[in-house]
């Protein structure tokens, strides 16, 4: 499937946010681990209130991925989009001309929420809400976006895919 590069990367950011383990100082740690998404000079420290709002955004991304119908997806996606403040601007900061969704001087939380909401929405409206799913591996409930050509993805990662293949093989041998 042909993603526009920025949109596809932005949806990966959304997926990472939905899957990140939230303990202690997770929010600023997450921002720093994905600092390529923020305009240089953006302060990547979040207040406790902002960290809670980042968590709410993560929950909404997850809710969109878990939705079971198009109506449900639309409702949750629009809830997420209501948190976004899109203000597109063109940039070549990494050497390639592309668009960012949030204004460059927006606070970190606004850049995060806007990028995640816009990236996720773009993939859903262009490629269908069935492209989002939750991992089928036992004991894993991470969400993923399926970028495979034939929309055949079932696991969040290669690790979960091979873990499940091994488990299925053992179960067959036992049987
Ligand atoms: Zn960029
Ligand atoms: Zn998994």
TrEMBL record:
Gene3D superfamilies: Jann2411-like domain. Coiled coil: none annotated. Pfam families: zf-CGNR. This is Conserved protein containing a Zn-ribbon-like motif, possibly RNA-binding. Residues 131-173 form the Zinc finger CGNR domain. It comes from the Bacteria. SUPFAM superfamilies: Jann2411-like.
């Amino acid at each position: 499937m042909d993603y526009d590069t920025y949109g596809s990367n932005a949806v990966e950011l959304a997926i990472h946010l939905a899957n990140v383990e939230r303990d202690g100082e997770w929010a600023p740690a997450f921002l720093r681990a994905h600092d390529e998404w923020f305009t240089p000079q953006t302060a990547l420290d979040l207040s406790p209130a902002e960290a809670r709002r980042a968590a709410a955004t993560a929950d909404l991304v997850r809710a969109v991925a878990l939705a079971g119908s198009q109506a449900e997806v639309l409702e949750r996606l629009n809830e997420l989009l209501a948190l976004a403040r899109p203000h597109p601007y063109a940039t070549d900061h990494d050497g390639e001309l592309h668009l960012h969704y949030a204004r460059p001087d927006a606070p970190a939380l606004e850049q995060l929420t806007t990028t995640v909401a816009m990236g996720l929405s773009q993939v859903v409206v262009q490629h269908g809400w069935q492209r989002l799913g939750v991992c089928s591996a036992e004991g894993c409930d991470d969400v993923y976006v399926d970028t495979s050509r034939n929309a055949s993805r079932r696991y969040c990662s290669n690790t979960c895919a091979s873990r499940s293949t091994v488990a299925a093989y053992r179960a067959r041998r036992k049987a």
